[in-house]
């Protein structure tokens, strides 16, 4: 028998044969009948080569896009979680610390602090309204940094007003808790401004603040101070 007449498949070892089958399954090689009885190995058609190239490119782009999308989703979830956490701590948690009502039956009312003479109550100075006017001026700017500063000034004006009116409390949160017992409507407005200000303080420059949110926070401070009877 002439060795030169042997076909390539006759002298293949088992390892190469398995590799050859793998190439056939994956579409990288084709077996076609040659001029004689022995099969010959030919390459895949051109359209399949181009299809495989574009499929590989599509797979790479899909993996990259999926990774970017996953990072964005995780970042949004973390921001949402922080927002909910701060909202629970700042907006709702202080209300849980309000002293219980008197044990006087179904019509009981919350405990009220002892009345003080009107002359003993402090009247806020012009610093409160100066801060509010400065906050309004900052709202006219197109810079989000100025909007954040406007909210912080409005919150500072609220705290000064509560201190000078002798609402009581050591920390701003304690003063808001006491205010909720005296004037719930004013306390709710103050909490809206305080929530926005605390979000800015905690997140610093990475906090995305819309102008309408800043305007609403400053307006809430205005309404709260008006309800408290602060004079110009």
Structure description:
The protein is mostly helical. Among the domains are: 3-42, no CATH class; 124-232, Four Helix Bundle (Hemerythrin (Met), subunit A) (Up-down Bundle). The chain has helices spanning 14-25, 46-92, 127-139, 144-164, 172-182, 184-203, 211-227; strands spanning 30-33, 39-42. Strands 1-2 form a two-stranded antiparallel sheet. The chain is rod-shaped, with a radius of gyration of 37 Å. The protein starts with 13 loop residues before the first helix and ends in a 5-residue tail after the last helix.
- Work out the strand percent: under 5%
CATH class of the domain at 124-232: Mainly Alpha
Give a short account of the largest sheet: 2 strands, antiparallel
The tally of beta strands, per DSSP, is 2
What is the CATH topology of the domain at 124-232? Four Helix Bundle (Hemerythrin (Met), subunit A)
Give the C-alpha Rg.
37 Å
Structural class: mainly alpha
Mean pLDDT: 69
């Amino acid at each position: 028998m002439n060795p030169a007449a042997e076909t390539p498949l006759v002298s293949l070892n088992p390892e190469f044969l398995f590799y050859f089958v793998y190439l056939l399954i994956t579409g990288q090689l084709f077996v076609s009948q040659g001029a004689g009885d022995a099969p010959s190995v030919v390459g895949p058609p051109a359209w399949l080569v181009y299809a495989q190239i574009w499929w590989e490119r599509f797979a790479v782009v899909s993996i990259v896009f999926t990774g970017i999308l996953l990072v964005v989703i995780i970042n949004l979830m973390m921001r949402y979680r922080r927002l909910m956490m701060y909202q629970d701590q700042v907006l709702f948690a202080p209300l849980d610390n309000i002293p219980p009502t008197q044990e006087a039956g179904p019509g009981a009312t919350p405990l009220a602090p002892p009345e003080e003479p009107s002359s003993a109550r402090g009247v806020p100075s012009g610093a409160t309204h100066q801060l509010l006017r400065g906050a309004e001026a900052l709202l006219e700017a197109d810079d989000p940094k100025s909007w954040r500063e406007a909210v912080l000034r409005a919150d500072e004006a609220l705290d000064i007003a509560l201190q000078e009116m002798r609402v009581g409390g050591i920390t701003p949160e304690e003063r808001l808790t006491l205010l909720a017992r005296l004037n719930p409507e004013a306390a709710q407005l103050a909490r809206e401004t305080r929530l926005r200000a605390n979000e800015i303080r905690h997140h610093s420059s990475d906090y995305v603040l819309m102008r309408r949110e800043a305007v609403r926070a400053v307006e809430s401070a205005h309404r709260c101070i008006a309800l408290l009877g602060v004079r110009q």
